[in-house]
Amino acid sequence: MLSEAKRPETALRRRTLFLEATAIIDAEFDDRLALDDVARRVATSRRQLQRAFAEAGETSFRAYLQRVRMDRAAELLREGSAPVNVVAGAVGYRQAAQFAKAFRRHHGAPPSSFRGGVTEVLAA
Question: What residues contact 120, with CB distance under 8 A and at least 6 apart?
């Protein structure tokens, strides 16, 4: 007998939940998003959404949200001249220090290193 996770209907349902949840995150990453709220919005339980992220997305809700925020923050820093605290707020962080720490952990460099053409030097 197939396990629940391997049933085609279950896999399809989890993939659908994952895609619906990631669409919300991609559109609203700058808001305070919580797993329970997103689960409610896609009409599922917290646990089912966690399983959807793990199985269909091979990640977690929190990791996905942080990746979206950090990628957008890097874009904003490369493209503009807004202060780090403004970029932090634009991607959903209320405290610049917490943002800078998360950014450094995610990208391996501080937010200031992503200004202008500096990232090309780092990548070379």
Answer: none
